[in-house]
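Methods, example record. To illustrate the input and output format used throughout this study, we show the complete record for 2-iminobutanoate/2-iminopropanoate deaminase. The sequence lines were provided to the predictor; the line carrying structure tokens was produced by it.
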Amino acid sequence: MKKIINTENAPAPIGPYNQAILSNGTLYISGQIPIDPKSGELVSGDIKLETKQSMENLKAILTEAEMTFENVVKSSIFLSDMNQFTEVNEVYATYFNADTAPARETVEVANLPKFVNVEISMIAVK
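The corresponding predicted structure is encoded as:
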């Protein structure tokens, strides 16, 4: 059985998908880009601020599903420029305990939705 997870504290989907799906105790979170859910505007111009907004969107979805970053077992980071890896990683690291951080990959891609610089998706388990 799957349960749809949506919250007004994260951006509404910009296509035919949901923010997250909870199935058998596993939460699959759609990729989050740096959209401020209150204004609907993109956060841009500084990769650290963009990463923080993406992570805050993920946090809101985790909270809606009654989870935290401690529940995350896998994350995927997509960057438009791998030269920004260090700055993204600095912000990302503030959301996790280094000893219990999830598995992860970070890849550079040609383009992302709305031509943002970063998109992050996660899988979490209760």
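Annotations derived from this record:
The mean pLDDT is 97.
The CA atoms of residues 47 and 84 lie 7 Å apart.
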